[in-house]
Amino acid sequence: MEKLKRPVYLKPGDDDFFKKMRLEVNETVLNNSSLYVLNVVKSLGLLAVFFLFYACVLLFGNQTYLLFFFYILCGITMIVLFINAFHDAAHGALFKKPKHNKWFLYVLELFGSNHWLWMRRHIGLHHAYPNVPDWDVDIKQSNIIRIFPNTPLLSYHKYQHIYMWFIYPLYSL
Q1: Region label for 87, one of left (φ > 0), alpha (ψ between -120 and 50) or beta (otherwise)
Q2: Considering 3, 14, 162, 168, which has the largest number of Cβ atoms within 10 A of its Cβ?
Q3: Residue 75, class by beta-carbon neighbours within 10 Å (0-12 exposed, 13-18 middle, 19+ buried)?
Q4: How far is CA 1 from the centre of its chain?
Q5: Is 70 left (phi over 0), alpha (psi -120 to 50) or beta?
Q6: What is the pLDDT of residues 85-134, one digit of tens each?
Q7: The pTM of the whole model exceeds 0.85
């Protein structure tokens, strides 16, 4: 088996885009208390909505169409929660106090995930190597969806902009 060569990044220069972007984000977003409150309310609201749908699954589960309806709504809400709230908490960006971010991440355990492992995997392997083939663990290398230009182009890839939205929720299974 061939050993993968670790990607190496160039050191940023004085005119680094990332430094300018970080400064602008700090000035406009992080110092805006109304955006902070809105983000917290959104995250806690999504969590409440998920548990509401889950309660509906338990209450109305004896009717098949309602069971599937609320089950699908639970799945969609869970995806939105992961993309928004848990992602921000893992980066320490949801709440101002680090302990509150950590407490919020414990909710991941209720979803069958592990917050410690997810943080190490996501921050250590995805953000260190975003969209780098064979290094970014958040993008699976398969033939279903073509992500990189050097992967083989198959006939059904011309429709991936349509079917990707149905496959994406199941892509990490």
Answers
A1: alpha
A2: 168
A3: middle
A4: 31
A5: alpha
A6: 888 888 888 888 999 999 998 888 888 888 888 888 888 878 888 877 77
A7: no
